[in-house]
Design brief:
The complex is a heterodimer of chains A (about 475) and B (about 475). With about 475 residues, chain A is α+β, with helices and mostly antiparallel strands. Chain A is built from 15 helices and 16 strands. The model of chain A has no long low-confidence stretch (mean pLDDT about 90). Chain B has two domains: about 350 residues, Amidase signature (AS) enzymes (Alpha-Beta Complex), CATH 3.90.1300; about 70 residues, no CATH class. Classes of the chains: A alpha+beta (about 475), B alpha/beta (about 475).
Chain lengths: ~475, ~475
């Protein structure tokens, strides 16, 4: 029997607000343990949460970008479960009446546009961090320490409809969603560091069947690649089970990146009863039209629109436009350069070629590197004018990036300028001719292909800095004279 | 008359006229405590040194010309479920035995800023769960009118401290009657403000949608003064309302002419002591004589108040009390070898039986499969009760009833009968469910034990209930009677 894959995703995005969702503590990452804390986020007796308006704005912004409906009236709920990283032993989240419902994101899979439905977007608080001694987890550890710095950092949960049909689609959706969130400035999108997390509900059903099959929930996918890998492995497992007549058990499974497989974490029977109920310490969130309009104005151009514009206005091929706009900072950089350097395709070639290659090896983003748009544009201008050769420019760019120098400094310091000065070249050509009498004689006797030998010698003398056209011309002039 | 016997407004007048000092007042109250506290047991802790130091400091400020507020130099007792920075706050629970809050409750901060003197922390039913203060994990507070009877609860320590003149003003908190019922039992004044009138920040939560802090005082004027000082929006409490705070003393008008008062029929029938009924009827007659229009009103949903409350309050409590787990503060069991046993043993050892009972009730009400039948249904009934009040207030300015069906009962009498204990809040609970204000004032005695009259108003009509209470008080002598200790 042929099976159809059905995938729905639950994404948690850490929001980039300065302060936590229910208190004034900093959300800054990497502080000494238990320093960004206060009575509220440590769950002292008697404290009350107060909702950070910025958090609501970020979620509304996301909701608008996902073409969702922004609830005029939404409420928070308590999700009750005991764990030492959760000081109140309940998480303030949204359950009934979330902030955003019914949105979608269009993604392109194998050249075709596909619409993935967004069920809801809601807000909640993050938990703290446990540090275990003597074991990897709580189980078996001799002692465990609690760091509450992360407690109360705002999280936005985005839940999709079960519209995804393949691991590749899931990966592309995640990449596009990440780009969207980064574009919106609401999340840094870093999956490795956990500021963007993803869980997947996976099930199979016989092709043509409407009802969904029994699903499993896959957790712990910490990169786009891991999302695809985990889902492929889980689908393979489910297909094999169904093929051999076994039944799928509804359970939560943990993905292990090193083995590339999923293993059971807890079954439905062990599932928590979270005893959700409306959070009585918070008043409902009321978002009126005016507020939505104000938030809407803060949304700048989104990835899809930018990609289309890059193709239309700059005449770039789709691949170039996609690669450039996948990273908002890179796209911004590109546009900055374009103000100073007009050849868009050439700029794109250098940007997604040399520059991106450098960033990849160094694991840096465009904002981390030593290169301003004007320096980059200037360098490309010099190549076009023939002041430096393409080859020299490549090594110069690396030098610029490594040492943070301008192209001028490098060119004047290391003599990278193309030697176009005819007199200078002529002197060198004459020198070469003098040194190579036998070859001159051979040339004279009709072996004109030897001209290339002389050109090569001149280039060697000038360490490749001579303008080849000029060298060619002078070499043939002088050989014919000699 | 001794200073400790006076009200806050009387002491304020003396301070204003420089006839006394904060130190004299504080010493007088501390001396009184040293004489009667052994028999009353109202306090969890007493701040002798800090109170005297603060009093001297205040006197210095007065001498240097600093203007005084209504609360300057007034010794105030603080219910031990209000967080006091640097001072142990237990909620009368073993689980918070050595808990020292890193912050002050907003109301505590306010009164300290106003120059009041914190005299000590008062006993309560553990986590404010109870109607007799017998559920305290530490001590049994006695009713100053009869030491064999309970002071009511959960603010029994606060009410007893006022009745015994061990403090001039006292903070109470009221979730289902915890200010009014002990005020009634102890023959003092207790006011539960409208939900949202007073910040709850720093009040150790029992049931968040019902809890409200309020004054327990010797007379209505003090209640008005104290309420004015504690009320107002607090950016730290989103459920506190952004409404201006009137000077509630302005509502102390000795006149009820033309006011329409409804007397709640269901609270003068079955289950209400005859003597209590008599006192309430007499109070109604007096108010009528003073010019009010009195009419009986039926509140058909009142009988559902107690069951509704015991689903909603316990549901919220089960969640509010989850944070007491031994991880961060308070008691941690020594009998723990892993996380689960730490949780289980900490909570088993730390919570008393009534708290455990309510956690279990509330957990049940919120559980999958039961939520709709219990929690959700109770929320719907809560709405009906509110609507009942709305209807009543379309017709009446205030409603009156007994605060409690009985006068103070004997210590130990109801400890083994939780249902009968729960029913002693039958008259007060609907008020919390509706989020409206009510005051209890002395209106008589039965066998030497005080009877309380409850005056209920619509949301944010504290001025009206204070006016009715004040008029009644000015035309009676009950509040002038003091317990003989």
């Amino acid at each position: 029997m042929k099976y159809e894959t059905v995938i729905g995703l639950e994404i948690h995005a850490q929001l980039l607000t300065e302060s936590k969702i229910f208190c004034g503590c900093s959300t800054k990452f990497g502080a000494a343990p238990n320093t960004n804390i206060c009575p509220v986020c440590t769950g002292q007796p008697g404290v009350l949460p107060v909702l950070n308006r910025k958090v609501v704005e970020f979620a509304v912004k996301t909701g608008l970008a996902l073409k969702g409906q922004i609830a005029k009236h939404s409420i928070f709920a308590r999700k009750n479960y005991f764990y030492p990283d959760l000081p109140k032993n309940y998480q303030i989240s949204q359950y009934e009446l979330p902030l955003v419902v019914k949105g979608h994101l269009d993604v392109t899979v194998n050249g075709e546009t596909k619409r993935i439905g967004i069920t809801r977007v809601h807000l909640e608080e993050d938990a703290g961090k446990l540090v275990h001694k003597g074991a990897a987890g709580l189980k078996g550890s001799t002692s465990s320490l609690v760091d509450l710095n992360r407690t109360g950092v705002p999280l936005m949960e985005i839940v999709t409809e079960p519209d995804i049909r393949s691991p590749e689609e899931a990966k592309i959706f995640m990449q596009d969603l990440r780009n969207l969130l980064v574009y919106l400035g609401v999340c840094d999108g870093n999956m490795e560091e956990g500021s963007l997390r993803c869980d997947a509900n996976v099930s199979l059903r016989p092709e043509g069947q409407k009802e969904l099959g029994v699903k499993t929930e896959v957790k712990n996918m910490n990169s786009f690649r891991a999302v695809q890998k985990a889902l492929e492995s889980e689908i393979k497992r489910q297909t094999e089970m169904l093929g051999s007549g076994e039944r799928i058990v509804q359970e939560t499974r943990l993905f292990d990146d090193t083995t590339g497989t999923t293993t059971p974490m807890r079954s439905k029977e062990e599932a928590h009863d979270y005893r959700y109920f409306p959070e009585p310490d918070l008043v409902p969130v009321e978002v009126d039209k005016k507020w939505i309009e104000t938030i809407e104005k803060t949304i700048s151009e989104l990835p899809a629109a930018k990609r289309a514009r890059f193709m239309k206005d700059f005449g770039l091929p789709e691949l170039d436009a996609t690669v450039l706009t996948d990273d908002k900072a890179l796209a911004d950089f590109f546009e900055e350069c374009l103000k100073l350097y007009k050849n868009a395709k050439n700029l794109s070639n250098w940007t997604i070629g040399e520059l991106t290659a450098y960033m990849k090896t160094k694991k840096l983003g465009i904002k981390d590197i030593n290169l301003t748009s004007s320096q980059f544009a200037e360098m490309l201008g010099m190549v076009d004018k023939g002041t430096i050769s393409r080859t020299s420019a490549k090594s110069a760019l690396i030098k610029m990036l490594d040492e943070g120098k301008s192209i001028h400094d490098i060119v004047s310091g290391s003599g990278l300028t193309q030697i176009s000065d005819e007199v200078k070249i002529k002197m060198i050509v004459l020198e070469v001719i003098q040194k190579n009498h036998p070859q001159v004689a051979q040339y004279k006797s009709g072996k004109t292909t030897l001209a290339a030998f002389f050109v090569g010698q001149v280039m060697k003398e000038t360490k490749g800095r001579a303008n080849p056209e000029v060298v060619n011309r002078i070499v043939s002039e002088e050989l014919n004279k000699a | 008359m001794e200073l400790f016997e006076l009200t806050a407004h009387e002491l304020h007048a003396k301070l204003d006229r420089k006839e006394t000092s904060a130190e004299e007042i504080t010493k007088s109250v501390l001396t009184r405590i040293s004489k009667v506290e052994n028999s009353v047991s109202a306090f969890m802790s007493i701040n002798i040194d800090e109170a005297l130091a603060k009093a001297r400091d205040i006197d210095g400020q007065i001498a240097s010309g600093k203007p005084i507020t209504q609360l300057t130099g007034i010794p105030i007792a603080i219910k031990d479920n209000l967080c006091t920075k640097g001072a142990i706050t237990t909620a009368s629970s073993k689980i918070l035995q050595n808990y020292i809050p890193p912050y002050n409750a907003t109301v505590v901060e306010k009164i300290l800023q106003a120059g009041a003197i914190s005299i000590g922390k008062t006993n309560l039913d553990e986590f404010a769960m109870g109607s007799s203060t017998e559920n305290s994990a530490y001590k049994v507070t006695k009713n100053p009118w009869n030491l064999k009877t309970v002071p009511g609860g959960s603010s029994g320590g606060s009410a007893a401290s006022i009745a015994a003149d061990e403090a001039i003003l006292a903070f109470g908190s009221d979730t289902g009657g915890s200010i009014r019922q002990p005020a009634s039992f102890c023959g003092v004044v207790g006011l539960k403000p409208t939900y949202g009138r007073v910040s709850r920040y720093g009040l150790i939560a029992f049931a968040s949608s019902l809890d409200q802090i309020g004054p327990i005082t010797k007379d209505v004027t003090d209640a008005a003064i104290f309420l004015t000082a504690m009320a107002g929006h607090d950016p730290k409490d989103s459920t506190s309302v952004e409404l201006p705070v009137p000077d509630y003393r302005r509502s102390l008008i000795d006149d009820v002419k033309g006011l329409k008062i409804g007397i709640v029929k269901e609270l003068l029938g079955k289950g209400i002591d005859e003597a209590v009924k008599r006192s309430i009827t007499e109070a109604a007659d007096l108010l009528k004589k003073l010019g009010a229009k009195i009419e009986e009103i039926s509140m058909p949903t009142f009988e559902y108040g107690v069951p509704t409350y015991y689903l909603l309050a316990t549901a919220e409590a089960s969640s509010n009390l989850e944070r007491y787990d031994g991880v961060k503060y308070g008691h941690r069991s020594k009998e723990a070898d892993d996380l689960l046993s730490m949780y289980y043993n900490t909570r088993r050892e730390g919570f008393g039986p009534e708290v455990k009972r309510r956690i279990m009730l509330g957990t049940y009400a919120l559980s999958a499969g039961y939520y709709d039948a219990y929690y959700l249904k109770a929320q719907k009934v809560r709405t009906l009760i509110k609507q009942d009040f709305d209807k009543a207030f379309a017709k009446f300015d205030v409603l009156i009833s007994p605060t409690s069906p009985t006068v103070a009962f004997k210590i130990g009498e109801k400890v083994d009968d939780p249902l009968s204990m729960y029913l002693s809040d039958i008259a007060t609970i609907p008020v919390n469910l509706a989020g409206i204000p009510a005051i209890s004032i002395p209106c008589g005695f039965d066998n030497g034990l005080p009877v309380g009259l409850q005056i209920i108003g619509k949301a944010f009509s504290e001025e009206t209930i204070l006016r009715v209470a004040y008029t009644y008080e000015q035309n009676t002598e009950w509040h002038k009677q003091r317990a003989k200790l």
